[in-house]
Every structure is written in C-alpha cells, then in structure tokens.
Amino acid sequence: MRTFFLTLLLTFVLLDAVAQPMYPASAIPPDLLRHANAVIRAHELVFEVKNKGEAIEREHKVVTILNEEAAHFGEPAFYYYEFIEIEDIEASVYDSAGKLVRNLKKKDIKDIKPLDYFINDIRYKVLDLPSRIYPYTVEYTVVKKYDGLMFYPDFTPQQSPTHAIESSSYSIIVPSGLNLRFWESNMPEGSKIGASTWRVNNIEAFKPPPYASKKAVKLPKVVAAPEAFTFGGVEGEMSTWESFGKFISKLNETQQGLPSEVEQKLVEMVKDCPDDFCKIDRIYDYLQSNTRYFYIGLGIGGWQPAAASKVDKHKYGDCKGLSNYMVAMLKAVGVPANYVLIRAGEKEFDAQNPEFPNPYFNHAIACVPLKDETLWLECTSQTESCGFLSDFTDNRMALVITSEGGKVMHTPIYDETKNVVKRVTEIKLSPDGNANLASRDNYACIMQDYMAHLEGLSDEERKKSLYELLNIKNFEVKSISLKRNKGRFPSVERQLELALPNFAAVNGKRFFVPISVLSQKLEVPVSEAEAPSFSGPTAVAIPRWTASPSTCPLASN
Fold this sequence. Notes:
Layout: H1 2-19, E1 38-49, E2 54-65, E3 77-80, E4 84-94, E5 100-103, E6 109-112, E7 119-120, E8 123-127, E9 136-147, E10 163-173, E11 180-185, E12 197-203, E13 221-226, E14 228-231, E15 234-237, H2 241-252, H3 260-269, H4 276-290, E16 292-293, E17 296-297, H5 308-314, E18 316-317, H6 319-332, E19 338-342, E20 363-369, E21 374-377, E22 397-402, E23 405-410, E24 421-429, E25 435-444, H7 449-455, H8 459-469, E26 476-485, E27 491-500, E28 505-507, E29 510-512
Parallel strand pairs: 1-10, 7-17, 16-18
Antiparallel strand pairs: 1-2, 2-9, 3-8, 4-5, 4-9, 6-8, 10-12, 11-13, 14-15, 19-20, 19-22, 20-21, 22-23, 24-25, 25-27, 26-27, 28-29
Helix pairs in contact: 4-6, 5-6
C-alpha cells in the first residue's frame, strides 16, 4: 500500500512539473515591451566546425510574439540546398500564460521551393506555428549539417529595432589547425565572453528616427568567416581579399572560352572602332540586344558563372553568367576586362567591410581598366547606359577579380553636381481658377532612373504613373513625352502638359496658388509624441522595420 501511495505521489509531482508554465508573457520585463513587436526570450546558436569543409549548426530559439507585426515568427523558415542538410527540427507553441498549446508535428512542416521562375536548388522548410491570440510564444530547435564551408553563420541577435532581447548567445567551436576570423559591429561592451563566444542580455527595442538610413540604425552583429575552406570540392583561402579573389578566379578560369566563330564575329563587329571605348560600347550593346537575365544557381553554380559559350548559345544568364560573358567577349576583341563581385542594393552600400575579407556578396558586374579611369558595366540590364551604374551598385566597395587575385576598389560616386533635376514650368491661369500647365524637365544620372523606366512604357502606363506620383488633387494629363539620352552620365528630357481644374482658390480679386506643383507625394514622418506607445502585449501594433531584398542574388546564407 505504501508503494502505491508513493507511486501516486510521484505521478502527481511529475504531472505538476509538466504543467508548469514555460515562458509566460507576464514574466517579460516591462522595459523590453516598449516599442517591441516581439521579444527573444532565449536564443542559443552553436556552430561546430569539424574540418575545412564540414560543420554542425545547432540553434535553439524562443520568441514571444506580441502582435501581428511579428507574425512571421509564427512561420519560421530554414533553407537548405546541396551543401546544407537539415537533420532535425523540433518546435512548440505556448499561450500567453506559458501553457503548452501544441508540439510540432510532421504535417506542420511545409517543404517549399521559392522563386519558381528561377533555377536553383534552394528549398525551405517552413514551420506552421501561428496562433490567432496574441501574445503567444514559439520555441524551436534546428540542427543543420554543412558539407562545404565558405560561409559561417552570422550572429544578429536583434534583427530589427522592434525586436527586444532577453538573452542571446553565439558560440563557434573550431578544431586546432583552423583559424577563425570575425568582425564585430555595434556589439555591447562585454558581450564577448570567450575566444569565440558572445552573449547579449536585455536589449530593448527602439523606434528609429523618421527616414533614418540603414547605416544610422545601429544593430548588433558578429560576422564570422573561415581562413581556409572547401566549397564544392574546391579548396579556398580567405585570409585576404587577394586570396579570396584567387578562389573566385579558380571557379571562373574554365568558363571564359568562346567558340572561334563567335570571336571572329565580335572582331568584325568592332573593326572600324577608333578606340577601346567604342569597342566596349558596341559589345555592351550586343550583350543587351542578344541576352536576357535569368538566375541560375545549382550547387557551386550559385557562385560559379555559366560558361560564356553556353550564355552565347542560349542567350540568357544571371548576373554571374552575363558578366563573365561580357569579360570573355571583350577579351576576344583585345580589351582586358575584369569580373567583379559587389554588394548590390539601394540600402546595401555600407554592408561590406574592406578590412574583413568575406564572401557576403550578392551581385556580379564587370569593369574595364582604361588609361585614365575604370569603366563599370552593369550586365543584367537591357536598357542601362554603358558605363553607368545607378544607385544599385554605385558608391561602394567592389572586389575586382584579377589574374593576381582579388583587388578592392570603389565604384563611382554620383554626387549632387551630377544628380540634378532642372525644370521650367509655365502655368496659365483662367479667371475661374482653372489652369493649364506646361513643363520641360531634365533628369540627370540617378535622378533619371525612374523616368528612364517610364520611357519604355506606353502612354497609358506613363499617365497612370503620374497619377500615383504627383501631389496634385485633381489634374488631367494632356500629353507626356520622354526622350532618353544615354551616356556615362545619362539624362531624360520630359515634356508634360496638364489640365488643372480648380487649381487656384478664387477670393474676389485674389488667387491662392500652390507653390510647389510638380513635387512628388511624400510621407510625412510621425513625431515621437504622436507615435503609438506600447505598454503591454495588447497595445497597438507598430510597423515592422524591414529592408529591401536584392534582386540578383549569389548563393549565400
């Protein structure tokens, strides 16, 4: 009988332990709730390197989701491809009191292929863990196996200003004989607690200033990279930009040959050119007229460009293939050119660190070293001017791949003397307040990008864009014409005629006329006093801070 009661008591104790709340939202410190859409309750990332080409990554994360602006945490996604295998996934969902709602089941894991209009071997396992009642908590553990180690995971404990952190850590275990390199950015003082371990605690969410640039938003980050590595069966070294460039050169060296008949055609095409710029311009025009962009990234092909001969045959390629093809064609006509890796994107100009060699590039272009300057070529556009980059790749670090290895250079800067809009506007007022407007505008360099895009559209599409663009309550587009002037510093001339009903407010003999007529619509930033405050899990949602993705990715993590 005693044994029976002892067994029964032990059962109740165990059941009570199981029933204890795990991560109640009420336990979150109040300071971590201010401006927060989500709170990272616990996060442990361990990356164990076995050798130059193999590693195991273990990640455990607990996130309390406070409102719908952080709902994406309820569907965490984990990518895998030829060089990364997901070995195990476990996950659970808890309610606001920390009570277990359910554990992840096999049917809750969706295996999807993103970007179906591209060719690549990247897939995602997406966990279906959302709840309709906020706040709730998601916990998951993921184990990945790496077979190819050009990348180590980076550590971004606070991925957005609207995420607060209770505790987050990162540990890298490297065997003797392999050197670990890392770059710390905006990490709190004292966060590094060992040779290769970092931990942060109690980081509050915050509201960035209105229109703050990405560079001005200081988020903590650790970027790690190997010194020696193996990727796709190819040995590489990354202690310097020169050595990493040699690895890229090794990938490219077998991909630049063109059939002799193609080379002869190219030579014939430029035989009357008086200088190298003429040759470059004609070959660039040939590239734009005969190829189109299509992303291809299978295995090491996410970094190795398609053979120039294949691009020539099939008439398409991604940023790697088209840039490599351009370099090969210029070589065929006697103009030395270089393949270039770059971190592209309007908000990515400060994403690279010239002092820390690493593979975090997402785009490829080409460049030609001329006598007095370097000419840069965006090879994925079928309409861009020869030698003009726009704000997608201007004013940032670029890794130029030479025969001696990688060389860091800086792309052109289009400053306020080049990026200009010149406008002459004439408005004829009628006694009833109606008006007709005629404007002659000239948009130069980066300022011409959008107008250059409109130049290729129909009249109806151009008019539609104006209705969305202009800050005028009521107008009719009578005519619009665009003339594009290509060149190193391209421009677009626009002539516009508008009918403006009730343009001026008539008050007796006085007309009240808007001063800035053709200004674009602009979102006025909300002051701190007017912004919604956050005092708990049921408060008003605050918009999530996000960054625009790149449009021409290289395979990376």
